[in-house]
Structure formats: C-alpha cells, structure tokens
Design a protein that fits this description.
Blueprint lengths: L2 H27 L1 H24 L9 H37 L2 H13 L6 H18 L11 H26 L7 H24 L2 H8 L2 H28 L2 H8 L2 H4 L1 H8 L5 H18 L1
Length: 296
C-alpha cells in the first residue's frame, strides 16, 4: 500500500490550508509575532501529546547527536525558512509564497547530495531547471503587467524553499540516529520547535513589536487564523511530513508535498479575490512537474 504517498498528498492539502491561514494572520499581526505565537503554542500542544502517549512531555531516549541535528534542523527550517516564508506571504501572498516552496525539493536534493552522499543525477538537474523555469514563468514582470512582484519578496521565497529543503534533510539525519525513540516524528517536531522558539524568541526580544502582539491577541479574526496555522502547520503538518519521509523515500514524499502551489490557486481566488491567469496555472504545474522529475 502507498501509505507514505497518500500521507504526503494529505500533507500538501494541510499545508494549503495552513498557508491561507498564515497569510491572514501574518498580515494582521506581523510575521515575527506570528511565528513566536505559533512556536509557543505548538510546543505546548506537542508536549501534551507526548505526555499522553509516552508519559513524558519531552522526547525520551534521544541521543545527543540526534538532538544536535534536530536543533539545527529547527533553526534552519523554522527560524530561517519560516520567517522567510511568512514574510513572503505579507509581500506577495501565500499563493506565490507557496510557489517558491517548490524549490524545497531542489535544496533537499542538493543538501542530501552534500550531507548524505545521495546521487544527484542528470535527470534531477533537468528537473531543477524545469522547476526554476516554471517559477520564472509566473514571477516574470511581463507575465502580469498589472502586478509587479517586489524583488524582496522573491528573495524571501527562495529563502523559504532553502530553509524547508535543507531542514528536512537535517531532520532525516537526526531521526536516523534514534529509530527506537517512542513517537519519533512527534519527538523530532518537539526538538525542532524548541529550536524555533529560542531563535524567534531572541529576535522578538530584540526587535519585536510588543504592542502589535497585544493587539493581535485580542482580535478574534487574527486568533482564529493563528489557531488554524498553529494546529495545521507545526503540529499536524510537520509531524505527518516527517512520518511520510519515514514511510517512503524523501524524494517522493517531497514531490507530493510540493503540490501545494497547485492546490492553493482556487482557494486563494475564492478567499482573497486574486485573479488566476493561465500563465500562473501553467507555471505552477510546470514547477511541480520539474520537482517530480528529480526523483522519477
């Protein structure tokens, strides 16, 4: 049975809903504030789940080497990657932000080649070029004369894909060191979330907008969107993505999870009234097809 593949598609749907909620919340409360809130709340939820199933709110029997890899994964994937991702939502919306997440398997393949010694074939290189071409088709300024995408948004999008791709490989390395750890995907998510909260917490302490945070906490629409982001993203989505990587090769899982840019097109039009162009549909499809070519 294709349990890993089915799980990966479910993750793509979950991340579609997460992206839409995150765009709403980030525009109302700010990307840094949203990430601090998200990390803190998800840590509490994950700790309760671990406590219920293992008797301890913290991961059990996890080796020091695995902790180091997972903490690094949390910093790269959450602090760097998610800060870039949520910032891209504010600048150019979740639809385009998620399009750049098709770069995650690209960076995953490259980092697996460097860190794990996995083979980077000619076909994978062709897939990389096709993915980049699909993204370029959408973001090129002549593709939609009425909408100019700021260069800063493009850089944030690339950073988001980089953080996600490298982070998942670091997670795989860490989890491979402790296969007997109870509830391994959830335990790994806990360690990554701790790293994320420490990183975001330090940045928030130095430069965070406390007044905007207080205002957001008292706004029902903001908190509803934030709750959806918290439950679907770092708690359910990330844990299921790590489980999918365990159940099927990382490349296949990453490819199927990269379908979010296609899934998000019509919901974003319905929620935000964003016009969908044929070029955008084709570009998103080409980008996902390029991702698939990496690992066929």
């Amino acid at each position: 049975m294709f349990y890993g593949e089915i799980l990966s598609i479910i993750v793509a749907i979950i991340w579609t809903a997460t992206a839409l909620c995150a765009e709403i919340a980030s525009k109302r409360i700010g990307s840094l504030q949203m990430n601090v809130l998200r990390m803190a709340a998800s840590l509490v939820i994950i700790a309760l789940v671990l406590w219920a199933f293992t008797g301890s709110p913290f991961p059990l029997n996890m080796k020091a080497e695995a902790l180091v890899w997972l903490l690094c994964s949390g910093f790269v994937g959450y602090v760097f990657g998610d800060w870039c991702l949520f910032s891209s939502y504010i600048i150019m919306g979740s639809r385009l932000g998620q399009l750049f997440m098709t770069l995650a398997p690209l960076f995953s393949a490259l980092s697996a080649w460097i860190i794990l010694g996995e083979t980077l074939t000619f076909q994978a290189i062709v897939g990389i070029m096709i993915t980049i071409s699909g993204i370029a088709m959408v973001v090129h300024k002549k593709s939609d004369p009425e909408r100019t995408i700021p260069l800063r948004g493009i850089f944030y999008g690339i950073g988001a894909g980089m953080g996600q791709g490298i982070g998942i490989v670091l997670s795989k390395v860490g989890m491979s060191m402790c296969p007997d750890t109870p509830m391994l995907p959830m335990s790994a998510t806990m360690v990554r979330a701790i790293s994320g909260l420490i990183g975001f917490g330090l940045v928030y302490y130095i430069k965070g907008d406390k007044a905007r945070m207080r205002q957001g906490l008292h706004d029902r629409k903001t908190m509803a969107a934030a709750t959806g982001t918290i439950l679907l993203g770092p708690v359910i989505g990330v844990s299921l993505s790590l489980l999918a990587v365990q159940m099927t090769p990382a490349g296949i899982a990453s490819t199927l999870m990269a379908l979010t840019p296609v899934f998000i097109l019509w919901p974003s039009q319905w929620l935000f009234g964003q016009r969908i162009t044929l070029r955008e549909v084709l570009g998103s499809t080409i980008a996902v097809a390029g991702v698939a070519l990496f690992f066929v």
